């Protein structure tokens, strides 16, 4: 269905410090290029990050504005989602709905919700 998703970010290196570790934990390989970074896993759609032009940084990103709300990924298992949640907390990233983890959206939906450095909401769902 999708070929790739490309996202502009405020600070590319800060963004990559989150996404590289996150995507490697999901089995994606970083692929640096002159304008940014792609994260690839086989023939799956890939994710690409680029630095936003300075004149387009204001007012900044927020998931409740028109545009992307969040990115959701499949985890391998509940244990895998728990490992990602532990890394998010240990690394000092923002975990969303932590007081309701792992059932923030209901008793049959095991998932992690967090934010990247630009406050893009990220979800990882257990099978």
Automatic annotation (TrEMBL):
Superkingdom is Bacteria
**Which Gene3D superfamilies does the UniProt entry name for this protein?**
2,3-Dihydroxybiphenyl 1,2-Dioxygenase, domain 1 (3.10.180.10)
Keyword Oxidoreductase carried by entry: yes
Instruction: Give the Pfam families listed for this entry.
Output: Glyoxalase
Q: Does the keyword Metal-binding apply?
A: yes
The UniProt record lists the VOC domain at 1-127
Family matches, as InterPro entries? Fosfomycin_Res_Enzymes, Glyas_Bleomycin-R_OHBP_Dase, Glyas_Fos-R_dOase_dom, VOC_core
Identify the keywords attached in UniProt to this record, alphabetized. Dioxygenase, Metal-binding, Oxidoreductase
Entry GO MF terms: dioxygenase activity; metal ion binding
Query: Do you know which SUPFAM superfamilies this protein is assigned to?
Result: Glyoxalase/Bleomycin resistance protein/Dihydroxybiphenyl dioxygenase (SSF54593)
Q: What protein name does the entry list?
A: Glyoxalase/Bleomycin resistance protein/Dioxygenase superfamily protein
Protein's organism = Saltatorellus ferox
């Amino acid at each position: 269905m999708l070929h790739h998703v490309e996202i502009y970010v405020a600070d590319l290196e800060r963004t990559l410090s989150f996404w590289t570790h996150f995507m490697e934990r999901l089995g994606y390989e970083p692929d640096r290029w002159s304008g940014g970074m792609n994260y690839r896993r086989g023939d799956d759609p890939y994710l690409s990050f680029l630095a936003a032009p300075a004149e387009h940084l204001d007012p900044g990103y927020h998931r409740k504005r028109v545009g992307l709300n969040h990115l959701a990924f499949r985890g391998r298992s509940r244990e895998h989602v728990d490992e990602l949640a532990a890394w998010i907390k240990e690394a000092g990233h923002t975990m969303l709905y932590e007081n309701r983890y792992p059932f923030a959206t209901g008793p049959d939906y095991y998932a992690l919700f967090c934010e990247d450095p630009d406050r893009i909401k990220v979800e990882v769902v257990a099978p």
